[in-house]
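Section 3.1 - Work completed
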Amino acid sequence: MTVNDSDAILARLMKLHPKKIDLSLDRLYKLLEKLGNPHKKLPPVIHIAGTNGKGSTVSTLRAIAEAAGHRVHVYTSPHLVRFNERIRVAGSLIDDETLSDILAECERANGNDPITFFEVTTAAAFLAFSRVDADLCILEVGLGGRLDATNVIENPAATCITPVSFDHEQFLGDTIEAISGEKAGIIKKGAPVIVGPQLAAAKKVISSKIAEESATGYFFKDDWNVELTNDSDYFLYSDQNTKLTLPKPNLIGIHQVSNAGLAIKIAMTQQAVHIPEAAIRAGLGWVRWPARLQKLDNTPLNNLLPDNSLLWLDGGHNPAAAGVIRTFLQTVDPTEQPIFLILGMMGTKDVEGYLKPLANLLTKVIAVPIEGEDGAAKAADLAAAATDLGLNGVIAKDFEAALSMIDLQSSRTAPPFVLIGGSLYLAGQVLKRANILPD
């Protein structure tokens, strides 16, 4: 089979359940049993939930484990350009033929029974992982935790809760306590739990769940910590037994230091595989995670802007992500480089909450639709939200037209700083047009 075959199967699977999201485990357990319960045949699992930083933590942990010589399966979502990105088998993205065969097998086993797209594709990932030897398996929760399809794993080697904030309130609840309760649902009896920086309300809920499951929690600042050094290229990691001076991770943003700390604490706490200090240092140096404050250079999109312009891409889509972007943009002098935001978002996201932290930094917001996404916010609504906050909000037909608009309006003596942001779906389309395929 080919990539076209897998696309056709994925399209059919999208139609097996009327809702894109319907949190439950019953349908998946039924399918997994028909497939021979592949989720029980995986190498030791590290299970990671949270609102922000999941992907970066997964990517950093994978880099560290692979630097130690281990074969690592990884399951993440969503994908940016092609579905294969979600399933990394023993270090490599699943190939088209294997993906098509695995999806076809899951489709046959499920028949016409209702099942969500994420459930059946999670089953496909487990099936692929169960058939290839590896030393470790890292699973990123898709949504929430308690009823997420990945939460069929019974005995993880460790679990992790990255920072919890507001997102997906329509599914997880409209309070930090409710959202944290869903995220904490991955905590299992006896398995260590590494916890990232949290609001007090989230920390209380997570602590309660850890006690309920008789697990051991390792909390940021209480049990482990990271601090920047006077040398901006390094940071300090410390816990009760270890103090390390380490190179900053090869990811942009101060928040990536705490994400790196989470990955390091997981690596040092789990008992499934041996990870030496040298592997931690090496992994931090080559970790990559696309569409998270990613600089675009020498792409067809750069050619649409004036010479010496800077073009960046970020898929963050909630107020907490905007806070990270704000810290990053504060390093730019707007008198020398006017800052443009090309914004596309899904209709369920908090547009005002995303824009508020950026309000006094941006020269202009150019709102664009997200092609092919029925649930995307209308560009006119995004521009209106920006205008209501005192920003200069305008619309363009797509992100390429927005780049051309910036080119026409820019002074040649002050080349612009351009950030395309607000959605991973938009980010994926940008990477595809830029001829950048995540690998």
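Second construct:
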Amino acid sequence: MTYAETLTYLYAQLPMFQRIGGAAYKANLDNTWALMAHLGNPHERFRSIHVAGTNGKGSTSHSLAAVLQAAGLKVGLYTSPHLKEFTERIRLNGVEIEREFVVRFVSENQDFIEKIKPSFFELTVGMAFAYFAEKAAQNLLDIAIIEVGMGGRLDSTNVILPQISVITNISYDHQAYLGDTLPKIAAEKAGIIKPNVPIVISKKQPDCQQVFIEKAEQQGAAIYFAEDLWDLEVLENGNFSIYDKIEKSYFLSDFEFELKGNYQRDNILGIITTLKLWEKSNTPIPAQAWREGLSNLTQLTGLKGRWQKLSDAPLTLTDVGHNQDAFVWIAAQLSEICRKKAIKKQHLVLGAVNDKDLKMFDILPKNATYYFCKPAVERGLEAEVLRQKMQTYGLQGAAYPSVLAAWQAAKAAATPEDLIFIGGSSFVVAEVV
């Protein structure tokens, strides 16, 4: 098969949660364990850091990879979903997996794939782990950063035994699969906590922290709440300083974090804690690598869609945030920008998938102009349905047949002094970055 034929085969044969939703979800790891055994247990043949959470796990994963790359390591990175191209999911030092490997992997394992019929995600995890194991055997990989897809306990990535585990912010998302309370969701995320493997909790949350403490105790895992170790100071120039509470001194002063979303403040201390733990059993990270990695991570890793600026006049921003907690941050930062830059009018291009709790949009400004659209995936919510539902929250606008049509309409209506925001779903963002 060619690469194009291979992707067609993958998408046609295997259920994919991002495209069809719950029908692709499997509440066990049976297929993953079978696939690992078939592949010769690649998950045991490379070192890793495992990252779970509701919001921030993608940014955290890319940030960890960027700093370690800047320190001279050969770093694998597995994330999901992809925005533009399948190969974005699996990277080595920021370079996407070779298409030839994708074709070879599917071709060599096609009979087994058709026998057990894994989900798209299960097979992608198998491919990533086989790739990382092969690169490690060739001394081309030192460490892999593995992002959980959904949840943790039953996620296909959860077969690894990492050096360190990380859990970022916990909020409401995928409640049908993970539970309808924060403690229930936290318990699913806590499923990545392994025996004797240190666990970093990026953000202390009253509803969740006892869940993590109890799970860590059961597993004999040292637990580190990042906020207990560091203070984050926001400087007037937009940079940050990190104060070490234990040593009573500044660890990193006046550094730039390239990801400009204010919600990243929930992630930074977890990133620092994880890397400092990594240093304890590995070589120290040079001071310059911390700064280079954090200030240059999109170039180092290829990350897109995190408070990404698309143009200056009108100021156009896009972000993959897609749940209630994310939109609390997004709405607040939009308001802050409008005050500081004297923005005349906001134009918001919004789309969503059909199983999303649309209450997340309720916090958005009522005086903005809205452009409702359907992302080009099977789960995409029809634009007219979204428009009608948004009237419930006082959000007024027109429906458009596509994301690009909505964006074009916003650009046509906006003046250079206005602001355009595009979001609501990673699938919306994928069409504009």
